Amino acid sequence: KELGAEIYLETPATGLIMEDGKCVGVKAVDKDGEEIEARGKAVVVATGGFGTNKEMIKDNFGYNLWEDYFPFNVPGTTGDGLNMMWDAGAQKFGANIEMIYQLKDNMNWFLLDAVLRQPNLLINQNGDRFMNEGMMGNTTYTGNALALQPGHYGYCIMDGKILKNYKKNGPDIFDIVHPEDAFLAVDAEFDRAEEEGYDGFIRADSIEELAEKLGIDADKLEETLDDYNDMCDEGYDSQFHKKHEYLHPITGKGGYLVGKYYIAAYGTVGGVRINKYGEVMDANLKPIPGLYSAGSDANTIYGDSYNFTLCGNTMGFAINSGRMAGEAIADYIDENF
Ligand SMILES: Cc1cc2nc3c(=O)[nH]c(=O)nc-3n(C[C@H](O)[C@H](O)[C@H](O)COP(=O)(O)OP(=O)(O)OC[C@H]3O[C@@H](n4cnc5c(N)ncnc54)[C@H](O)[C@@H]3O)c2cc1C
Questions:
Q1: Tell me, what's the pLDDT at 193?
Q2: Which of 24, 73, 143, 227 is the most buried (most CB within 10 A)?
Q3: Whose CA is closest to atom 30 on ligand 1?
Q4: Ligand 1: which atom is nearest the Cα of residue 76?
Q5: pTM value surpassing 0.90
């Protein structure tokens, strides 16, 4: 504002203004419903991807938003900017989600999410184990393993006795995302989940009850638990080589406690192709004059999995791609106006 910029809130852009092959502004609808135009020497589109657009998620990745895929999302990221750029001739390129995993609606069930993701028995809807649960501290590996299971989810099972041990001695896996007192404070959230009928958490007192609630054949579930407990007793996971210190027998003492974990992400990344100046490229890899993109709309430097080794990677890209586009636009204006 000090530099004279005008900021229009509650004024979604609806399209790009193209003249003589150049981008010279945006159309928008202001908060009173009036159509307006904002003209400029260049445009930067940075609308954050399409993480909240159910149809685009289905078309691009085959997932059903809020049904078998439960991401974090920045509200309002509906793919508007990408659609505008594609309409203006931008190449469709590199749309992805960076795969992670979490409970559905996890921000409302943060303690459950923290506590139930310990490396106990993780099974799919068929009642089978499918990975070394010792890797559950790695959201990327686990998300990708879940993505291959029926329905893109898995049940992580522990019992009251194991939880008691965690409360006393600390969990098997520590993380820096969830609250440190989660294990001591979780009981109230278990109760709230049952009161509110939250289906991301399942509690049962017997294998039969558990099988019924999970919709898994009781004999199959018992067999999986027996096999698992045998390996715990032997101290050797002959299926997936989980570390022996994570092999706690699940006897049901204190009740079975289960989290239903789904694949997830932090919105989407990518959709258009930019060059090192932030210029948006057309189908022939030629820059569209005056059109720049930054942030998640243009972030194609990561793949289809959360970059576990570089936390903050998408914000870092958002900030720096915006800065680089700004520098390039200053040069573009110097050279062309
Ligand atoms: C809970 C959560 C935790 C996260 N944690 C991390 C983290 O630890 N590290 C990390 O790197 N990243 C994290 N992210 C991701 C990070 O927030 C995004 O990568 C980043 O915000 C992308 O910035 P952006 O500017 O591209 O888009 P955004 O920040 O999403 O901004 C896009 C904006 O465009 C607006 N918009 C959309 N359509 C229109 C339109 N038609 N007209 C006008 N405006 C429009 C949207 O309302 C939004 O305000 C997290 C995200 C969430 C939701």
A1: 98
A2: 143
A3: 48
A4: 47
A5: yes
All domains in the chain, ordered by first residue: 13-97+267-336 (3.50.50.60), 100-264 (3.90.700.10)
d(CA 120, CA 248): 7
Tell me how far the alpha carbon of residue 90 lies from the centroid of ligand 1, in angstroms.
21
> How remote is the CA of residue 26 from the centroid of ligand 1, in Å?
20
How far, in Å, CA of 63 to CA of 196, rounded?
Answer: 26
Residue 152 alpha carbon to ligand 1 centre in Å: 25
Query: To 5 degrees, how large is the angle CA 272–CA 273–CA 278?
Result: 105
Q: What are phi and psi of 25, to 5 degrees?
A: 160, -175
The answer, yes or no, to whether any atom of ligand 1 lies below 6 A from the CB of 268, is no
- Beta-carbon count within 10 A of 62 CB: 10
Q: DSSP assignment of 240-292, as one string? A: T---GGG------TT-EEEEEEEEE-BS-EEEE-B-TT-EEEBTTS-EEEEEE
pLDDT of res. 94 = 96
Torsion of CA 72, 74, 80, 86, to 10 degrees: -60
Mutate to test the pocket of ligand 1, among 30, 139, 314, 324 (most ligand atoms within 8 A of CB): 314
DSSP string, 55-77: HHHHHHH---BTTTB--B--TT-
> Which of 213, 166, 216 has its CA nearest to residue 194?
213
3-state DSSP assignment of residue 313: helix
The pLDDT tens digits for 225-257 are 999 999 999 999 999 999 999 999 999 999 999
From the CA of 311, how far away is ligand 1's center (Å)?
15
